[in-house]
Amino acid sequence: MIEIKNVTFHYAGLEQAGLSDISLTVPDGECVLLCGASGCGKTTITRLINGLIPHFYKGELTGEVTVNGKAIDKQEMYSLAGLVGSVFQNPRSQFFSVDTDGEITFGPENIGLPKGEILSRKENVINDLNLRNLMSRSLFDLSGGEKQKIACGSVAALFPEIIILDEPSSNLDWDSIRDLSEMMKVWKSQGKTVIISEHRLWYLKDIIDRAIYLEKGRIVKEWDRKTFGLLTEEELASYELRPVNLEEKYIREFSEDDKDSIQIETIVSKSRIADQDAEKRSDRVFLHNFYFTYKPKKYFLFKKKITPEDDAICNLRIPYLETVKGEIIGIIGKNGSGKSTFLRCLCGLEKICIGTVIVNDKVLSGKRLTEISYMVMQDVNHQLFTDSVLSEVLLSMEGPDEKKAEEILKNLDLLEYKDKHPMALSGGQKQRVAIASAIAAKADILLFDEPTSGLDYRHMKEVSTLLRRLADMGKTIFVATHDPELCAQCCDRIIRISEGRAMEIA
Amino acid sequence: MEKAVKTKEITGWLHLDPRTKLAMLVLFSVVVMIDVVDGPAYAIRVVMTFIPVFLVCLEGRVHIGARFTLLYVFATWLMQFTQKNIHGVAGMLLLFVCYMIMQFAPTIITVWYCISTTKISEFMAAMSRIRVPQGIAISIAVMMRFFPTLGEEYRSIRDAMRMRGISFGRGKVTKMVEYRLIPLLFSTINIGDELSQAAVTRGLGAPVERTNISEIGFHARDFLIVLVMLILTILYVYFTVEGGNVIL
What we know:
By secondary structure, chain A is of the alpha/beta class. Chain A is 34% helix and 24% strand. Chain B contains eight helices and no strands.
């Protein structure tokens, strides 16, 4: 049993919101959902239970947290390890080994269990959670969904009574999310207590026993499974929660097997593009011959280019795609299906791809694609280089023009931050800084890789409005996403990539 | 960023004991530290350089071995060519570059071989067998775990720079370094934080004797490699001392 009594907490040295006067009791075997907007305190509650507060995150803590009658703050982290297991948001930074087997046995080895016991636990976990086909692999070669499964296995191998998941689905595709919910069902049937903090709610509605809604560090509302399932879209929207049934409906629509989808043409000759009349050519963007493989042909010094003839070994096979300028194209598909690869090829990052983009009668390929396209990466921290927002924008311009830069910033509501360090901004603001530098670089094609992963309802809506505004400026936008709502709200077309082939969803 | 699914065994089929690799590294660094330019010692040095390269090829990475060989041979040739034909500042610069390649490339490929073919659990097992304190073993293991992550991060940042056309820092070397290091620092701090959270919630650092389930042990090939390396190193030291040209 978990008991949280009158807990108030403030992070030391962080502006991050804390908790005020939280009381919560979770009996054994219950599955509890913590929901609410970003910064409402749901992650902080999970940290109270797994001991990261007060052992890892320091701050002012009053009140009492006990698990099975033992006070968390009086225990050491390692003695909690066998009792509370935690799965975190980011799949790439929560494994310690470099191989899958080592990761499953990592926890039991740490607490010094005998060898035979560890091996039998490993077998157990592999069977329970259906991980057999992931064994003996390098963790660096797994997709996000597979990594998250291994993280679950690694936690389960410690046989904890309580399992805590902190936004585990943020980086996962829909199939992986379903797998995740299967794992949670297994844990429930084993009588484990499951606490989950999450924005995406559709996969949880049949699993949870209770939903707790937080706002600014306080518990505001509680529903049991039945009443939670009966909440209408409007009610959910008024709490700024993601619509449960609507998301599910979209997912069904978007992942429906090829019935309604049209295979995009396979063979197109170059002359077809030239034959189009001038008017049509001027307001369209043509993509031609996008092929790519992860297993390049054997080479000694220089990688060989990939051409349509290599179709058999390709992970990406898009011979032809035509879009109207100012269109938003949603790209969906499983983890590892080739979405990100397509975006990388489209902005000229994959040297062996011979893909060509024709826009305004300019024929661009290879390195020159970087002139017209710009990708906002999933982790925007990778693409902010300077010490102020303004210089970030100026860096992208051919000739620095401060006036123009300020105008761009103003358009994106960033002008007041122009002298701030980009790393001091919030996630959404960083994203906008990256977009500002894309506009400054005069990119016609903007690419977004999972722009809404881990975002709550309000921030997701903000992103979708922003994309629409960019499209109205005449930018052609490609968005790779797992977010069904984002697709439904702002995409003009949806293309599903499966096994590297593009399918139009009608 | 998503990567395609590919199956790859981490530990190569040679399956050398981590202790063998450690011995190899130690012996190899002795050779690197003592510098010679000709005579029998030089021949031994070249032979020892190519032992790890040979192992890399045996593990199925022939193209990497071949590329290294090409680089090494080219650097050797260029060095001799420069000594004879190019003088002045340009000559000095070229000599310096060649010297760096011949000095560091063998070390890098040896270290890379040892790290990339060792599972962390095997490494931990080996460390506890040779009675290295757990604290030190864990620190080294964390470093080993961090290299590939650092590589992934670095590649993303390099891509982002390419996209903005600032790979060469607009002509300024300081900017070139700055643009790479600043995002790298921020993201490694974040990842380090998340990594340690995951580790402590899984009981790392418990004051109990850590179990190691990895099977490690010496085989004939381990003895063979250590023996050959040891004999070569002794000969190398003998020849250099004999020749009187020891530069430590």
